[in-house]
Design brief:
Layout lengths: L1 E5 L2 E3 L5 E8 L8 E6 L5 E7 L6 E3 L7 E6 L4 E6 L8 E7 L8 E2 L3 E5 L2
Parallel strand pairs: 2-11
Antiparallel strand pairs: 1-3, 3-8, 4-5, 4-9, 5-6, 7-8, 9-10, 9-11
């Protein structure tokens, strides 16, 4: 299993970024997926979850209305569109395989998002 997350960078408050995660080594279309972030000096925080078909999504209250999770099963890719970014969104963002019965079992290496003026 390999989860290659990318797309992070430095952006000013109010800006946007789109994270991507290319999955390999398993049948991507049969697994729920999540994004989890970890800010400097803090523990991991779940951000968003999507089911196998992309028909059901869930968000942490802190990002609801600003972030959108999506997936392209044909391309084995998970996305996180992040708009209206705030300094408190600064964190390392991880793509995570998140099957309903087994919990978060595989993580990407993370991609760094830094929001600062």
């Amino acid at each position: 299993v390999l989860l290659a997350d990318s797309g992070g960078g430095m952006v000013q408050p109010g800006g946007s970024l789109r994270l991507s995660c290319v999955a390999s080594g398993f049948t991507f279309s049969t697994y729920d997926m999540s994004w989890v972030r970890q800010a400097p000096g803090k523990g991991p925080e779940w951000v968003s979850h999507i089911n196998t078909e992309g028909s059901r999504t869930h968000y942490a209250d802190s990002v609801k209305g600003r972030f959108t999770i999506s997936r392209d099963n044909a391309a084995n890719t998970l996305y996180l569109q992040m708009n209206s970014l705030k300094p408190e969104d600064t964190a390392l963002y991880y793509c995570v395989r998140d099957p309903p019965n087994d919990g978060m079992d595989y993580w990407g290496k993370g991609t760094l998002v830094s929001v600062s003026s």
